[in-house]
Amino acid sequence: MPRQGSWGSMELHNNCNTRASFDISRSSSLAQENLSKSQRIRNKSVDFDDHLPHAENPRLIYINDPRRTNDKYEFTGNEIRTSKYTLITFLPKNLFIQFHRVAYLYFLAIAALNQLPPLAVFGRTVSLFPLLFVLCVTAIKDGYEDWRRHRSDRNENNRESLVIQAGEFQMKKWKTIRAGEVVKIHADETIPCDMVLLGTSDPSGLAYIQTMNLDGESNLKTRYARQETASSIFEGCNVFGLIRCEQPNRNIYEFTANMEFNGHRFPLSQSNIVLRGCQLKNTDWIIGVVVYAGQETKAMLNSAVSPSKRSKLESYMNRETLWLSIFLLVMCSVVAVGMGLWLHRHKDELETLPYYRKTYIRNGRENGKAYRYYGIPMETFFSFLSSIIVFQIMIPISLYITMELVRLGQSYFMIEDKHMYCSNSGSRFQCRSLNINEDLGQIRYVFSDKTGTLTENKMEFRKASVYGKDYRSSNFTEDSLQDDNIIDAAVSSRWKLKSEISVDSELMNFLHKDLAGDERIAAHLFFLTLAACNTVIPIVSQDASSGHGRSDSWGEAKAIDYQGESPDEQALVSAASAYGYTLHERTSGHIVIDVNGDKLRLDVLGLHEFDSVRKRMSVVIRFPDNTIKVLVKGADTTMFSILARDTEKDNLIRQVTQSHLTEYSSEGLRTLVVAARDLTDAELEQWQCRYEDASTSLIDRAAKLRQTAALVECNLNLLGATAIEDKLQDGVPEAIEALRQAGIKVWVLTGDKQETAISIGLSCKLLTADMLQIIINGNSEEECRNLLTDAKTRYGVQPAHRKNENSKRSHNPQNGYLEIPDDAKSSNVLQPCSGKEEPDVCAPLALIIDGNSLVYILEKDLESELFDIATSCKVVLCCRVAPLQKAGIVDLIKSRTDDMTLAIGDGANDVSMIQMADVGVGICGQEGRQAVMASDFAMGQFQFLKRLLLVHGHWNYQRVGYLVLYNFYRNAVFCFDALLDLSHKTLLKYPKLYGAGHRHEAYNLQLFWITMIDTLWQSLVLFYIPLFTYKESSIDIWSIGSLWTIAVVILVNMHLAMDIRRWVFITHAAVWGSIIITYACMVVLDSIPIFPNYWTIYHLAKSPTYWLTILLIIIVALLPRFLFKVIHQIFWPSDIQIAREAEILRKATPNMRSKPNEDSS
Count of CB atoms within 10 A of residue 318's CB? Predict the structure, then answer.
């Protein structure tokens, strides 16, 4: 016989042996009753004023009437265009973009000067070749990329979908679809534009979509057609009406509109619209009306590229280029002044000197006429301009394209690194930005999200506090259950979940006993709330391998899987199912829950989704006995303030629950508070009136819905709390420890509560037991100011302007290498305080601050105080922070220091932080791909950051730094040394080697000027040794020029050979091949009789003086550099040099276990 059990005002009907049929007539009558009541309520006055049609200029969409919809031709078509150029605009637009590089303007000016007849030093045409080559290569690359975009756009625009034309559905190309047209989409097809659902193949108007192409989330999401239109569509009737919606915007998570249909007006929200790029799943077909098309769709509005970032090294190059330009002008001025003095001294001899003529001396008409002589002042000025053209090579144009090629190669090595492949998600490393590779080797601050970045974002239900009693999950066993009937109900009849959930046997026994009392009712409502208060989609199948599909069979054993936008909700609903409360059906108007084999149908009257202001979610439910309840779950910070305080027992339960929450949070678990209450008819009527008005408003709908939610989210009865575990990703503690040893500060910015963040910080070794925690939790500007001031006074934090005086490099006389304290450059050094607190001051500090305090600090004049304290701490934890606050914290460091910042996250709430940082890294995680799409680099797990920075970052910085210096030294040789460096094993074993990037050892202003001085010395040696050697000889200008040419080629290659760390085939070919090819070219050119240098090399090569001169040039030019390197490496070796020598020793003597000093590495 059917068993009936009543808990409070709820009824459950057992239908274990017979297939249950839904009481359609009753639900229909209730729906009609509610609808008529809603209409009566709307006639009453309400507090909301909606002047939308006149104030906000809404978009009017006439269903199935595109001509009337776009009668003013103000809406765009559905054709999209992602390309930059057209055939007409390509050349001017591309050149305009390229000439944003100032160096290109410099070379353009040089080429223009060379076109003037008095200044044609290299020939008018030849002078244009270098600049034209660089411009053409870049233009070809840009043109090819844009051609691919054109091809992709053409394929996309020519796809076809079914559109109502002449009263029936016909195929129509996507690019010709217009707003107002009705479109039909079949299963597994892609949505061509943003459409409001009118009907689906499901009679209730339910549809499942996958938004992976839009935001990367693989979970299915539900969308609903309004019952008013869904029934008409399902019956085959034509639908006509008017939709008033907001103007196009890029917010993919919100949609505000209302629809007028059959004389009624009802609201439309995000759950009623499907967006372009989504795919239809598990639904045969849907029909919708186009509201946004083409470039106005939310997908296209969100397709903007991430902000352009420029390498820090490249900005240094611009500084050095400016210095070289100044030096170039000084050199040219000296040459011009010397030219003027020489002309003045020989002004009477100009008619007889070579290259100068005042008049023509020849027979014919030109005899006696003025030659190319413009007077001493103009000749001096032309000499200045000619010198600029001659010395232009000092600023190498080849450097830019060489850097691009090197960066491309570096990106290839990073992408192909098998150690950064994530097997769990099947994702490889992505290099989405090619111009900041070397910045990876100079990172000083890492700002990390917690959930999904440090943790797996795969939630598991662990503990629960139900009506003041703590329950903990354990392995489910039949022996732990006390009754055979309970075993049958809990094991045999329960649904098969995708993954097993551990349950508490005591709680399971309690739920399956026929007991009365407040505790039993609270436990029942607790799990009903977990099952009902969510947006999770149940996917039912006959068994775990039968795929996804809805099933109407009740008596057969079924497998169930839950799809939802939030992993937290999925974990809670799965936990409720494990305890016997299985959500197995959801429509727009009701849900069905299997309670230990009893079917319970609940009508959903309204849902207030979670938002960052309320930090809670609530659902208004009508039970079968017509009682109305509001079920609420949310963060403890906002839930306890809206609980009822009626009795002493309520206060006791509240205190016990709070202690449980503190315990859960200290263990690193994510917590939520669950509460509920009954609604009276008057409260329901008031709420329905306000809810209907707020949900149909197009002005401040979110704010009005929050006000409406406050009507029912009050005086709640506390039911309990949940604790969910979000496990750490593999390798996170090791990665954080390695980054810390490398001198990188890791800050965690999370939306979790403070206790949870601290616990995760301890488990991932971010926080240590010896750290002193500075906690800033202020509720006003004055309170925050006092907390910051007290912390600065107690721990002796210096003001920001004094940090540079104390954060200097210290020299270690024991091992002779330079070491940087952790707080150098941008951190304040702590000064010891007198008295008993002195030992505490010497301990490392950790700052823990909440988002509420940041509201007052970041928006007031307290930023400098926060900066002083934060940079004095080894660790900073920011809890309960909003997305913009994350960006504000990054900007706090970025705007006040020269240190490089990196932000890493996996969710949409991390995008602003990722774009604010110098380097943004996205994690391919559970929260979609918005973070990846906004990032510069993307990878599968946080642990790969260790290898990305310590190995590839080090390699990239060292190689590009040497490349730039070598090009400034001599811009004619490609830097093949970039292929060789310390091994990845050494770099990972000794993270402190990364400090070379912090100290700018590979490239800095001092190194630049040392290189320039060395270059000046080599140039003087190169010029004067041949001059003095052949001073008394009769050698001509072609012979001395040939000597200079071959000498400079040999010199720069020997210079490069001194810096090569390992000789392989490619380095031998590059160095010696360059010299051989140069000699071969000279032999060929000197063998052509028509050239003035005919047979020059053959005469020179016969003389021993020629070869001795070249040898002397090489020795004298490179001797200072050689001595400097030897002395520096012997007496002041760098960390990298020590590690490199240790590598060589290990390879040379396998049996000798020699390793570098731990402190110096």
Answer: 12
